[in-house]
Write a structure and sequence with these properties.
Layout: H1 2-15, E1 62-66, H2 74-88, E2 93-96, H3 105-116, E3 123-127, H4 130-137, H5 146-152, H6 160-165, E4 167-168, E5 171-172, E6 174-176, E7 180-181, E8 184-188, H7 189-194, H8 203-215, E9 219-222, H9 229-251, H10 261-273, H11 286-294, E10 298-302, H12 306-314, E11 323-327, E12 334-338, E13 340-343, H13 351-362, H14 364-374, H15 390-401, E14 403-406, H16 416-432, H17 435-448
């Protein structure tokens, strides 16, 4: 087990530069999927009637909360959760152990060191899916939370696919606090309207719109891939649009090979899309790219909906007035899920206090405090939609009825070894554009990391 955990720690450290996190930092902020296809479903049971966190007798304990939520919006959301927790548990000391910098890079390295050194926090932020299950669960470093789910009635309050994503071998290992959507085009309404262009919903429409904008000297697609996950995210949305959710999910189980003709077609389409991006994309982070759209210097930006939080919270833009949105080409009815969850380390000192924190995270009240500030939507299906803006309301409804797919760029679809190599391969592809080489190296990386038929 020590050797196995050491391998995972190495992988976590190696991938921290390329795996993004939902939320950012005070320096280079960046954001934080759904069911990993091979993840088994947790056993169902009759839920307890509790639906929100209830005040309980103070324990006089301590809870240390580890995250990378230090940027605007996300930090406000975290502070809202902490305030709510203190109202319910005034005698439990709260330590905010958020680590800033590099889109979670620093936080993941610090967490890996602490977990390996036997000094875990009370609860820690982790993406649901492969990042959780092939990392901390496989290493035996987190406690199952089946009792908490049963006690709180959460099996009826979180979508089944979402519970599957945080489960392994019949046990549930973390509590989802939010949902972000990754397959979204945000666009400047004035730029599109003034140029007579409609927001595209198919690849044909996208390229027609991009050509029309380019002919008028307008940058059609803003990209900021200084941190390479942004380009990987654009590519995974193309994959989803070309393959559809069923075949997209088969990539991660090895049922569909990475040298399949549809993957090649996706790379060719991705390459064509890159001809419409801003020339300085490699020098920009995701916020810089989103700002091009906000200022009207570019028309569209493919980004997770933390960009909506940036538009409304930081830049004070109004949804459906200053900016609009559509799903990425050919993905209407699909939902590329990115979810932040919190797990409970097996070796944490005050697990009773930590579970009280998790109860607040999983409650309707907690999720409705956090998500409107963060720009995300609640993971629960019974949250109060009236607390959310036009984008939030629409996304909440889409989440309930869409086909869910896990994000590669955000740690949910595949093991970290493959995600690391995929980021490198896509980064090279953006520069060189060699379709056959990218196809070959993606297949090799999949084989090397055990993603085979």
């Amino acid at each position: 087990m020590k050797r196995k955990f050491g391998v995972i720690i190495s992988a976590l450290t190696l991938t921290s530069m390329v795996l993004s996190a939902c939320g950012g930092s005070t320096t280079t902020p960046a954001p934080s999927g759904t069911q990993a296809p091979s993840t088994p479903t947790a056993a169902q049971s009759t839920p307890a009637p509790a639906e929100t966190a209830k005040p309980v007798a103070a324990s006089g304990g301590k809870v240390e909360i580890f995250s990378w939520w230090t940027g605007a919006g996300e930090e406000a959301g975290l502070q809202g959760l902490i305030k709510l927790f203190k109202e319910k548990h005034s005698d439990i000391e709260v330590i905010n152990a958020a680590v800033a910098g590099g889109a979670g890079t620093n936080a993941k390295a610090v967490l890996a060191s602490r977990m390996q050194g036997g000094d875990p926090p009370s609860a820690f932020q982790v993406h649901g899916g492969a990042e959780l299950n092939t990392g901390w669960v496989a290493a035996g470093k987190v406690s199952p939370l089946n009792d908490l789910y049963n006690q709180q009635g959460w099996k009826e309050k979180f979508p089944k696919d979402l519970i599957d994503m945080v489960s392994k071998d019949g046990n549930i290992y973390s509590v989802p606090v939010n949902i972000h959507r990754g397959n979204v085009i945000f666009y400047n309404k004035k730029v599109l309207d003034s140029n007579g262009v409609k927001a595209p919903t198919t690849f044909d429409e996208f390229f027609a719109a991009a050509d029309a904008l380019k002919a008028k000297g307008v940058t059609a697609l803003a990209l900021g891939d200084k941190e390479p996950w942004a380009a990987t995210m654009l590519f995974e949305d193309v994959l989803l649009g070309k393959l559809g959710p069923e075949n997209y999910n088969k990539l991660w189980t090895g049922e569909l090979a990475f040298d399949d003709a549809k993957v090649k077609e996706s790379l060719e389409t991705f390459k064509k899309m890159l001809t419409y991006v801003n020339k300085d994309h490699a020098a920009r982070n995701w916020q810089d790219a989103a700002q091009l759209v906000a200022k009207g210097e570019a028309a569209m930006n493919v980004m997770g909906d933390w960009a909506k939080g940036y538009f409304t919270t930081d830049l004070k833009l109004k949804p459906n007035e200053d900016f609009g949105w559509v799903t990425t080409p050919n993905t209407s009815g699909d939902f590329m899920v990115i979810t932040d969850t919190f797990a409970l380390p097996k070796d944490s000192k005050d697990q009773a206090s930590a579970k009280e924190w998790l109860k607040v995270l999983g409650s309707v009240e907690g999720q409705d405090v956090f998500n409107p500030l963060k720009g995300s939507i609640p993971a629960r299906i019974d949250a109060d939609a009236s607390k959310y803006d036009a984008y939030g309301k629409a996304t909440i409804e889409d989440f309930k009825k869409s086909k869910l797919t896990p994000s590669l760029a955000h740690g949910s679809a595949a093991i970290e070894g493959f995600a690391t190599q995929a980021n490198q391969i896509i980064n090279i592809f953006v520069t060189q554009g060699n379709v056959d080489q990218a196809l070959k190296t993606l297949k090799q990386a999949a084989d090397a990391n055990g993603i085979k038929k």
